[in-house]
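Recall from the previous lesson that a structure prediction takes nothing but the amino acid sequence as input. Here we apply that procedure to diguanylate cyclase from Azospirillum picis. The sequence below is the only information supplied.
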Amino acid sequence: MAEPRPKILVVDDIPSNIHVLSRILRDEYDIYFATDGERALDLVQARMPDLVLLDIMMPGMDGYEVCSRIKADPAVHDIPVIFISAKSEVEDETRGLEVGAIDFITKPISPPIVRARVRNHLLLKRQTDLLRSLSFLDGLTGIANRRRFDETILREWRRCGRTCLPLSLIILDVDHFKAYNDQYGHQAGDECLRLVAEVLSERARRPGDLVARYGGEEFVCLLPETDRAGAAAVAESFRAGVAERGIPHQQSPVAPHVTISLGVATTVPTADDGHEILAQTADRLLYQAKRAGRNCVQD
Ligand code: GH3
Ligand code: MG
Ligand code: MG
Ligand code: MG
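The prediction returns the following C-alpha cells.
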C-alpha cells in the first residue's frame, strides 16, 4: 500500500504568502492553511498535520504563542514546527527554537531550501514515530510490551476512576512451560508463545482492550469498562482458545497440549488505591489457579 501523502499546515496572516508556499509544496504534500493563530491550533487538533510551517508576526496570537501551545499539549507536541519569518535577528531565531521549533527559515524564502528542509524534517519525524511505535512492541510476539501496558494501566486507572466504571485485569501464565522448552527446544518455545499471543489477540476484540506480554511466558489483558462477569468470560475464552489450538505438549501432566492458567481482578478505581492492587490480586488468583490444577480461571 502506498504511504499516505504527508499533511502540512501553513500558517500566515498574508494569503499571498500561503499561496507561494502552497505552490512550492502541493505536488508532494496535502496542504492545509490558517491565517491566524486560533484557527491554526484548531486545525492542528482536527487534522493532525505531519508538519507545521508557521509565521511569527500575526495579529492576535503570534507564532511564538502558537508554537508554545502546540508544544505544551502532549496530544500534538510531536508535530514538528518550522518558523518561516521575515524576522531575522539572532534573538528572533533563538526564541523560535526555544519555544520548541525544529527549524527557522527567513523570508524571502528560497523554494529549493524550503522543499529540502521540509523533506528532511518529515523523514526524521517518520523515523522517530517508527522507533517510538517499536519501543512499545514485544519483539518476540509482536503484541504490546510491558512498557505499553504500564503506561496504559496508569491512564485507564485514572479514566475509569473519573467515570466510576470497573477496570479488569487478566494475568495468565503458560502451564509447565519449562518442560515444554526442555522437550521441544527453546525455538519451539518461542513459537508457542507467538501462538498464545495470537489466540489472545483474536479473542480480546473490544476497542480499548489491551493484550500485552508481561514477561517470560506471562501475558496480561487489560479490560476497561468491563465488570467481573465480563472479564471472567474473556478469561475463559482465552483458556478455551489456547487449549483448542492444540499445541502438542507431551510432558504436561495437565493435558497432551499446551494450556494456560489465569487470574482475573476487577475493581472500580478509587483515589485511595494505586493501580498495583489489580496486578496483585490477579497474580494471587493466578497462583490459586495453578494450585487448583492449572488450565483454569480464578476470579
Ligand atoms: P507453571 O505451570 O507453574 O507455570 O510451570 P512453568 O514450567 O511454566 O514455570 P516456570 O516459571 O518454572 O518456567 C517458565 C519457563 O518459561 C522457564 C523459562 O525458560 C521459559 N521462558 C520464559 N521466557 C521465555 C521465552 O521468551 N522463550 C522461551 N522459549 N521460553 C521462555
Ligand atoms: Mg505575518
Ligand atoms: Mg511464569
Ligand atoms: Mg508457567
